[in-house]
Write a structure and sequence with these properties.
Blueprint: E1 2-8, E2 15-19, E3 24-27, H1 33-42, E4 52-54, H2 60-63, H3 66-73, E5 77-79, H4 81-86, H5 88-92, E6 99-101, E7 107-109, E8 112-118, E9 127-133, E10 136-141, H6 149-155, E11 160-164, H7 169-174, H8 179-186, H9 194-204, E12 211-215, H10 224-238, E13 246-249, E14 259-261
Parallel strand pairs: 3-4, 4-5, 5-6, 10-11, 11-12, 12-13
Antiparallel strand pairs: 1-2, 1-14, 2-3, 7-8, 8-9, 9-10
Helix pairs in contact: 1-3, 9-10
One zinc ion binds near residues 57, 121, 123 and 143.
């Protein structure tokens, strides 16, 4: 069984925790080292017990506390080569044996098989992850400009998914963001909207998805209630007879309940 917990999620910082009986990993470290430590302590996880930190991409909301946290607790950090090159300042602060590379090939960390996959986003070589353990699959996919066939094929057959629901188009349109930033968010390498998240979840429900958590919500261009409502409306429309699906929204600064994927 997997246990998953969102520690921080949103445009202001991202960090998630995943464990089996014997393996504990962190995905991204986009909060200060102190805050990451506090959030792990709140779920009774000792930072020294972490086996690895996986990095999706080098944007600061994913690596803010990385080098300080990883160095303090001697945790190996896994990223692809282009991402490491794009966060050279963080790499310099780590011990050589902490710097681990992956490519878009499955690899094992303890008893979890990790499959990184490419996502369309304006970073060096950004990725999502699927995790496999005892025939169960769960996935994390945030910072996605649009859902490609390749992304969808990796997410298929996940029981649980943490998916980005970054913005509501009407709210973004009216926000005070500069035009170019709005274009970036809307664009094919920016972020995923609420309705796109709803359509993706709805489709994946045909392929074994039982629970989903909406994450990486924009502070300026979205509201948790609106993201939830938009996605629920899409799911009711497409799956009117479904009544056991579990949908939640990750809180920006609060640790989520622990999700069990079994
Ligand atoms: Zn990003
Ligand atoms: Zn991000």
């Amino acid at each position: 069984m997997f246990q998953f917990c969102s520690l921080y999620s949103g445009s202001s910082g991202n960090c998630s925790f995943l464990q089996t009986n014997t393996t504990k990993i962190l995905i991204d470290a986009g909060q200060t080292a102190k805050k990451i430590e506090e959030s792990l302590t709140s779920i009774s996880v000792a930072p020294t017990s972490l086996h690895a930190i996986l990095i999706t991409h080098e944007h600061s909301d994913h690596i803010k506390g990385l080098s300080i946290f990883a160095k303090k607790f001697h945790i190996p950090v896994y990223a692809n080569e282009e991402t490491w090159n794009a966060m050279a300042q963080q790499r310099e602060k780590l011990e050589k044996e902490q710097i681990k590379y992956f490519s878009f090939q499955p690899f094992l960390l303890g008893d979890i098989q990790i499959e990184p996959f490419p996502i369309p986003h304006d970073a060096a070589n950004p990725c999502g992850f699927t995790f496999l353990h005892e025939n169960k699959k769960m996935s994390i996919a945030t910072d996605i400009g649009h859902i490609t066939q390749e992304v969808m094929s990796h997410l298929t057959n996940s029981s649980f998914l943490l998916l980005e629901a970054n913005y509501e188009p009407e709210v973004l349109k009216c926000s005070s963001y500069p035009y170019l930033l709005k274009q970036r968010i809307y664009g094919p390498n920016g972020h995923l909207s609420n309705v796109e998240a709803g359509k993706t979840i709805s489709y994946l429900m045909n392929y074994g998805l039982k629970q989903a958590m909406l994450g990486h919500l924009s502070k300026e261009n979205n509201f948790p209630e609106l993201a939830y409502k938009t996605v629920v409306e899409e799911l009711i429309q497409q799956h009117p007879m479904e009544n056991s699906f579990h949908l939640s929204v990750a809180n920006r600064f609060e640790v989520s309940p622990i999700i069990e994927v079994s």
